[in-house]
Amino acid sequence: MATWAQTLSGSDGGLLQQTSSTYVLVATGILAYVVYSKQETWKLRHIENAGSSSPLYFVDAVRYMINGKNFVTNAVQKMVKIPTLDGWVVLLRGEDVIDEWRKLPDDILGMDQAQHNTLQTRYTMSERIVSNPYHVPIVQSQWRRAIPRLIPDVKEEVEVAFETYVPTPASSEDGWTEIDPQKLFPKVICRASNRVIVGKPLCRNEEFIENNVQYTFDIFTTAYTLRLFPRFIQPLIGALFRTKEKNIDRCLKHVRPLIQERKKRLESKQDEEDDEPGNFLSWIMEDAKDPQDANEREWAVRVLVLNFVAVHTTSTTVSQSILDLAVHPECHDILRTEAQEAVDRYGWTKEGLDNMVRIDSFIKESQRLRPVGFALVERVLMQDHTFVNGVTIPKGTTLAVDIDDRNQQYPDPDVFQPWKFYDLQQKTQKPASITAITPEFLSFGYGRHACPGRYFAAAEFKIVMAYLLLNYDVRLKGEERLPDMFVGPGRIPNPKERLLLRRRT
Ligand code: HEM
């Protein structure tokens, strides 16, 4: 029997030789990476570091990762660079620089490259999502046009979700039920959004909902793990991850019957005869012009990706605004009266929501102070570029916009002023609602890629808040709001935060 040493060495050097070549490969990799990072740092040496610098790049990158916005100490209107797990990100600040950024074409500001770097789209989504994002014009057109028709459906979904997930306390003396907002709202929003993405009854299927909420976490976990490795090794490691395939399989289990049914309808041209309004799944099936997109797996990925872009962002914003509502009891009667009058007069319709102007202002102020991320809308520079402030950034650098810096351009920027946007609209007669994008309010992005889903998101926010006000009393479990949590550029409410809800009779 071969000994352990023999097995290791073998007749021609065997495993030992293999092991030493592995060491050489790893050592070369590390060396190449160190040289590469030094070179990158050197190229950006004229841009100040965002936080206090440690001599070891990775120490700062991890500090930023777990401490996010708190790491970025110098709140000046100057470009700074942030150390991330896979390289520097230059944070753009100042109205003139951001206005210039907005106007630069896609061949100078690469969006696909940035999305791939941040979300590792190749291993978490699909190549086609990036190379042919035909779902974006669908959100801009078919989805947006359908909003007036969808409002009663979304309200019904919110209502059913509250009845399902907010237990009525049988034994509690005072009738208050404790709620974890970060468990409740993702499910409420996931159901409501999927009423439009795949329709009823699948939008109420618990397993489907769980899978979609989980998918967002899978994307972040996979992407952050891969980003721990140098870019040139990522394809090797990425190939080992099954995140994408696993999630597509789970999604297909539920959407395949809908796809088959829809295909039959399309084949028999039934659509021309009935007035079935369709949903996101049917729209992507109809608009898949390229044969590479016209198959079950690609449609399932788009269903997942829509869940990714629509659910986490919206539910985090809803959680933040309802937590703010809980600590501003002085606003409850005003908002409740507004909701009641709008519903009495117009029902749950677009006109009804358009008349909830103070609710709109309240949510927007919450979103201004607590956006889902502070360094959003990443792009990779495809060529060297000198900005209007005279600073030249080299090709290949990742850029992000400092949303907080922009959202702070109001008088008393740190004070929560619930009627700020309502008053602004009255005074200027210019749109200041949630969906209005101005240089001072960039929570939905800016320019040609600004969020096309914001009209639907705003409708969801207002339906949830109005429904909650009309049916529940709300307060915070603790005395005051706990500090938000920052993970890299992201911001979420403190996981220990709890709401108390009491059914109104
Ligand atoms: C609070 C809720 C939301 C926030 C804060 C948000 C934020 C954003 C931001 C900042 C962008 C710009 C990304 C960039 O320029 O790199 C974006 C893009 C996008 N959003 Fe949203 N979003 C929200 C809800 C939604 C919803 C509900 C939908 C779908 C109905 C949606 C669909 C999209 C799509 C498809 C894009 C890509 C646009 C493009 O590539 O041109 N979003 N969103």
From TrEMBL:
<feature type="binding site" description="axial binding residue">
    <location>
        <position position="451"/>
    </location>
    <ligand>
        <name>heme</name>
    </ligand>
</feature>
<dbReference type="Pfam" id="PF00067">
    <property type="entry name" value="p450"/>
</dbReference>
<dbReference type="InterPro" id="IPR001128">
    <property type="entry name" value="Cyt_P450"/>
</dbReference>
<feature type="transmembrane region" description="Helical">
    <location>
        <begin position="20"/>
        <end position="36"/>
    </location>
</feature>
<dbReference type="GO" id="GO:0016705">
    <property type="term" value="F:oxidoreductase activity, acting on paired donors, with incorporation or reduction of molecular oxygen"/>
</dbReference>
<dbReference type="GO" id="GO:0004497">
    <property type="term" value="F:monooxygenase activity"/>
</dbReference>
<keyword id="KW-0812">Transmembrane</keyword>
<dbReference type="InterPro" id="IPR036396">
    <property type="entry name" value="Cyt_P450_sf"/>
</dbReference>
<dbReference type="GO" id="GO:0020037">
    <property type="term" value="F:heme binding"/>
</dbReference>
<dbReference type="InterPro" id="IPR002403">
    <property type="entry name" value="Cyt_P450_E_grp-IV"/>
</dbReference>
<dbReference type="InterPro" id="IPR017972">
    <property type="entry name" value="Cyt_P450_CS"/>
</dbReference>
<protein>
    <submittedName>
        <fullName>Cytochrome P450</fullName>
    </submittedName>
</protein>
<comment type="similarity">
    <text>Belongs to the cytochrome P450 family.</text>
</comment>
<keyword id="KW-0560">Oxidoreductase</keyword>
<keyword id="KW-0349">Heme</keyword>
<keyword id="KW-0479">Metal-binding</keyword>
<keyword id="KW-0503">Monooxygenase</keyword>
<keyword id="KW-0408">Iron</keyword>
<dbReference type="GO" id="GO:0005506">
    <property type="term" value="F:iron ion binding"/>
</dbReference>
<keyword id="KW-1133">Transmembrane helix</keyword>
<keyword id="KW-0472">Membrane</keyword>
